[in-house]
Amino acid sequence: MIKKMIAANWKMNLLKSDAKLLANSLIENFGSDYSAVDVVLAPPFTLLDAVGNLIKGSNIKLCAQNMYPEESGAFTGEISPLMLKDLNCTWVIIGHSERRQIIGETDELVSKKVKLALKCDLKIILCVGETLEQREKGVQNQIIENQVEIALKDVNNDMLKNIVIAYEPVWAIGTGKNATPNEIVEVHTMIKELLSMKFRENDDNIRVLYGGSVKPENIDEIISSNNVDGALVGGASLKADSFSKIVKAAGE
Ligand code: 13P
Questions:
Q1: Residue range 108-121: average pLDDT?
Q2: Does the pLDDT value for residue 212 go beyond 90?
Q3: Which residue has its alpha carbon closest to ligand 1 atom 9?
Q4: Atom 1, ligand 1: which residue's CA is nearest?
Q5: pLDDT at 198
Q6: What is the Cα–Cα distance from 212 to 177, expressed in whole angstroms?
Q7: Residue 202, pLDDT above cutoff 90
Q8: For domain 5-251, is the CATH number 3.10.180.10?
Q9: Cβ count near 70 (within 10 Å)
Q10: Is 165 buried (19+), middle (13-18) or exposed (0-12) by CB count in 10 A?
Q11: Top mutation candidate among 127, 213, 237, 239 for ligand 1, by most atoms within 8 Å of CB
Q12: Per-residue model confidence as pLDDT tens digits over 163-195
């Protein structure tokens, strides 16, 4: 069985003092003896150093929310994967729907980021998911398949172990509406079948997380669904209490 992973996406939230309090509470709960679940924190860039220093040597891993697909150069305001490695990031989120929808990131840009992140030895949480309009048209599987195919076009079998896919239906993010277990299982199964065919990989080596209004009240149902290997949590990851409940539920 694959070890479950729970990742906290803090998005553009928290200032240093609150972030340190939150990280310290999570270290108390999951920092040393806890190994039932892989716990990952994705603070905004401004907090990577502070949070990274606190969790150093613990079981909790550091993740960035984004990166630019160049190692260095004249890209004002951007952050390179080497800078993330320099701050001890293990993971980077690529292709989050907020970046696709609000910032206008294309599948091609996502694919470039994936390629460079892997070259720089970062593990990737690759986000995919359909909009409400696409789900209402019933084209979610095609949309997601396309997102996965383009994002992973330069990825080979060896690299796949460093990639986790997060299925985040856009209509379920920050809306309080989560997808039903059946909807989640259908997409997760489709993603696993696609990857196992493409990479001739055993399903058991492919992790697919769910994201979208995950909270303590619905984690049990989500995490016990077939082919759900963890969760990417936004709003409920901003409080130690709710995030800890989610991690513990995933570890049971
Ligand atoms: P919410 O949990 O706030 O819906 O956010 C989900 C998400 O986008 C995680 O990346």
A1: 98
A2: yes
A3: 234
A4: 234
A5: 92
A6: 8
A7: no
A8: no
A9: 15
A10: buried
A11: 213
A12: 999 999 999 998 888 889 999 999 999 999 999
